């Protein structure tokens, strides 16, 4: 696909977004050659939005270096950069939503990402701080909207896990006449939890223009290797997910592929702008693109869902039924400092 400039006046992210948190090594060790090849494959395949954060280890540095190496084929005008502010470590003590820190953080991110502007900046994990430190004077949203006026960034939003917390913030901003541009929810449209479908219309009613989902694999819960040790899911859900992966494997399927297709198939149901999925290497990109394209073919009636896939999904849903729409605590006890 030939590179094309993205719309600078209206955020039009690709249906698949590149989750660059996966480049941090949080899930697996990353070979130094992977990021540039993965980003090239993504851009050539039509992915135009990259999501990262200072909290994701060296993700911003790695992504910035990879995209800079591709600048001749894909200049800055051909993609969107989305990063976050406010969370700089594992615990609530590592949160800093003060306006001063937010302004510095945006400048630091631009330097790491080798750009003089950011497309989207999100207040990271809004549930980790009191409500007033999100919406109050001298804090994160006020600072971000000021930076938007200055042209340092184009769209302001929030990210987090508990949907009721995020909705409260969105409704507050709407009531004050300064609605959020973007919402990024994670792990709430997956094989195990589809609560985002219920909340997306509520966010739109609160004036949010762009509604995005992340972690269709529920932070690696649905993969053959299983989730990392730090994953907040309880032991019973982990065991059910492991059993689901085994059921898929025994039937000749890959649980990550099934989970991706399930998540991608829901985007049209609630008019979702983009699904951000973590991608470590070129092969990950190819698999994600193929899963997305398969879903699109099925929606157009050009591809039938195999009968054995339907049966496997029924068995997986039965295994996960006791934990359907369960949301784990956030912040967790370990994260509360």
Automatic annotation (TrEMBL):
It comes from the Eukaryota. It comes from Syncephalastrum racemosum (Filamentous fungus). GO terms for biological process: dehydro-D-arabinono-1,4-lactone biosynthetic process. This is NADP-dependent oxidoreductase domain-containing protein. PANTHER family: GH17980P-RELATED. GO terms for molecular function: D-arabinose 1-dehydrogenase [NAD(P)+] activity. InterPro entries: AKR, NAD(P)_OxRdtase_dom_sf, NADP_OxRdtase_dom. GO terms for cellular component: cytosol. Residues 15-293 form the NADP-dependent oxidoreductase domain.
């Amino acid at each position: 696909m030939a590179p094309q400039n993205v719309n600078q006046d209206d955020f039009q992210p690709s249906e698949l977004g590149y989750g660059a948190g996966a480049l941090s090594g949080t899930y697996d060790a990353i070979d130094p050659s992977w990021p540039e090849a993965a980003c090239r494959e993504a851009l050539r395949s039509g992915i135009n939005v990259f999501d990262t954060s200072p909290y994701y280890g060296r993700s911003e540095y790695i992504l910035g270096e990879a995209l800079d190496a591709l600048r001749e084929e894909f200049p800055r005008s051909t993609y969107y950069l989305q990063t976050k502010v406010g969370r700089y470590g594992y615990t609530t003590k590592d949160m800093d939503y003060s306006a001063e820190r937010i302004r510095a953080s945006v400048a630091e991110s631009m330097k790491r990402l080798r750009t003089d502007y950011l497309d989207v900046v999100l207040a990271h994990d809004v549930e980790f701080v009191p409500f007033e430190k999100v919406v109050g004077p001298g804090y994160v949203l006020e600072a971000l909207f000021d930076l938007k006026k200055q042209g340092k960034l184009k769209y302001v939003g929030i990210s987090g896990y508990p949907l009721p917390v995020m909705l409260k913030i969105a409704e507050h901003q709407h009531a004050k006449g300064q609605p959020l541009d973007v919402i990024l929810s994670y792990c709430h449209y997956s094989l195990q939890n589809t609560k985002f479908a219920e909340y997306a219309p509520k966010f739109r009613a609160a004036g949010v223009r762009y509604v995005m989902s992340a972690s269709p694999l529920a932070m690696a819960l649905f993969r053959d290797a299983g989730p990392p040790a730090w994953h907040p899911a309880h032991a019973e859900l982990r065991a059910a997910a492991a059993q689901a992966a085994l059921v898929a494997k025994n039937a000749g399927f890959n649980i990550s592929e099934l989970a991706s297709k399930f998540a991608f198939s829901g985007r049209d149901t609630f008019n979702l702008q983009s699904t951000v999925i973590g991608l470590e290497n070129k092969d990950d990109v190819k698999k994600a693109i193929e899963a997305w394209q398969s879903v699109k073919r099925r929606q157009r009636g050009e591809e039938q869902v195999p009968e054995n896939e339907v049966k496997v999904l029924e068995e997986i849903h039965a295994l996960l039924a006791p934990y359907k729409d369960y949301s784990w605590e956030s912040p967790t006890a370990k994260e509360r400092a």
